[in-house]
Here is the input.
Amino acid sequence: MQYMALIYTDPALEPAWGTPEFDAMMQGYFAVNEALKAAGHLVAGDGLQGVETAVSLRIRGGKVETMDGPFAETKEHLGGYYIMDVPDLDTALKYAAMIPSAPYGTIELRPVMDYNPAGN
Here is the structure.
């Protein structure tokens, strides 16, 4: 089963770029990547650029509307994701707990919808 781990963090709590703490955090991300790859569970994973680069889209009254940025009123921003193919939720939780920003952010796990289940 595939799970997406959505990585939310408060940028004010993240280590500053170029510091030893930032380098240690990145080494932690590299370690998660390697653990998922070695176990054959990594489907995809990347960081996202900041919310200031986001564009939101919606259709209202048949017209496409776009606006800058997200609308969530929260200090935590979606900063990256992993998609992993694992046997169960417990395995997904094991790898999500390895994500370095979990101690100061939130990792949301969601099963990926399977629109083509085997045998159908």
The chain has two helices and six strands. The first helix runs from residue 20 to 38.
